[in-house]
Every structure is written in structure tokens, then in C-alpha cells.
Amino acid sequence: MSNDLNEVTFRRLSRADYALLCGWLAQPHVARWWNHDASLPAVEADFGPSIRGDDPAEVFIAIAGDRPIGLLQRYLYADNPDDQAELAPLLAVPGAALGIDYFIGEPDALRRGLGTAMIRGAAESIWKDHPPAPAIIVPVDTANTASWRVLERAGFRCVGEGRWAPGNPVDGWNHRVYRLDRPPGR
């Protein structure tokens, strides 16, 4: 597998991906931060609404070459007012801004530059698919060094730190908030 930064593409998550997603969610490096039940019924319950169009979040499989390597989810803050309110003490989050969640699920795809390529590709797709989006804003647990370093390598900048409820009960409350603004002319 090459680590050419232009090789990551995306396709919409489908029901046919559930077994793959279950396997990724069970990987220790994913389970540590996602804290998600990796069973088929749980994956169906959580990701099925996006596939059916009942949840506006857009979920994609990230592909390097022709191999699925990870997951990318993007969502409008306007569709998630609780998230928007949680970030409000640190920064004003425009409703048209998007957030992303992501992971590389394949252990042998880690530390090859593919996470950075995935985040850069996600940003490009957001600028193209969501013309009103002024920015992408991503809160990350401060202990999840790999995640926030990938954001930094993809051009995001840390715009604040704050405390809020962790996604995994074993985590602390400290988070960094990263932001990437729409480039001029995009």
C-alpha cells in the first residue's frame, strides 16, 4: 500500500459495509476512542438512520487504492444544536460549519500518512459539497494525540481548549478544538 496523499477516496456507507464496520469498531485502536458496541445490531441501530436518510449525518468509507481503510462521518452543526452549544464557551460555531468524526480501521494502514490524506480529502469534499460551510470544527480529546496531530498535519489549527463530557467514560474532560476555514475562492 502506497502512502501517496492523493490516494484516499470516499464512497457512501451501505448496509453491505456493516460487517467491515463491526470489525473496525472492535479493533483496539478504534475501540479505545470510539467506545462503540461493535455488534451488528448496534452498528445497524447507529448507522442505519444515516443510510436510510433519517439522520442528516453523511457517513463514508475511506478507500486507499481499492481497499477500504476507514470511516469518515460529516455533519452540520445546525443539525446538532447540543454540540454547537457545548462548544459555545470556546468559540462561536456557525450553523453552516461542519464537524467530522473519523478513524482508520485497518491496523496496517496506520502511520502511513493515510489519516492525513483522509482528513484533507474530507475537507476538499466539504468545500465542494457544502458551499455555505465557512469552516470545519472538530473537538478532540487532548489525550488522543494521534487524532489531533492528523488534524494539524491536514492544516487545522487549535483554536481553544475546554472541558466537556467525554465520549468514553475512561477519558478525561479536556478537549482541544480544531478549526479549518474555507480557503479563499473555494
Polypeptide structure, described:
32% of the residues are buried. The protein starts with 7 loop residues before the first strand and ends in a 5-residue tail after the last strand. The chain is built from 6 helices and 7 strands, in the order E-H-H-H-E-E-H-E-H-E-H-E-E. It has a single domain, classed as Gcn5-related N-acetyltransferase (GNAT) (Aminopeptidase). With 186 residues, it is α+β, with helices and mostly antiparallel strands. A 4-stranded antiparallel β-sheet has the order 1-2-3-4, with helices on both faces. The protein has a 3-stranded antiparallel β-sheet with strand order 5-7-6, covered by helices on one side. Helix content is 33%, strand content 27%. It is globular, with a radius of gyration of 16 Å.
